[in-house]
Amino acid sequence: MNPLEVMSALKKRITYLQGLALGLNISIHSAEGKVLVYMIDILADLAEMVTKIQSEQDDFKIYVDSIDDDLTSLENMVYVTLGQKVITGGMTVQNDDTGTFIAERNGEACFKAKD
Fold first, then answer.
1. Residues 6+ positions from 83 with CB-CB distance below 8 Å
2. Which helix (H) or strand (E) holds 78?
3. 10-30 pLDDT, tens per residue?
4. Which of 11, 17, 40, 112 lies 20 to 30 A from 69 at CA?
């Protein structure tokens, strides 16, 4: 089971437990009833928090993956070997035979350096 399926099943079980407690007419005026109702409420709150954390983690993973893609593009620009030409992120980067490193965007040089 993936985490979303586990959380969905857990929420269903908590909802079922809440229904059982309601159906049994557990009195919140007795000590035992207060404990049971409070524990069920805590379980529901925990399940909701875990769901929110899972969603935020999924968003974070997407963000980290985009950073990784950007880093890969940057590495491609920086580690261009002699005589190689790379097009990445809308920029052409080349290291010509003389050891000159040139980065161009839209046909205009935006960076030039010599080894």
1. 95, 96, 97
2. helix 31-78
3. 889 999 998 988 888 888 899
4. 112
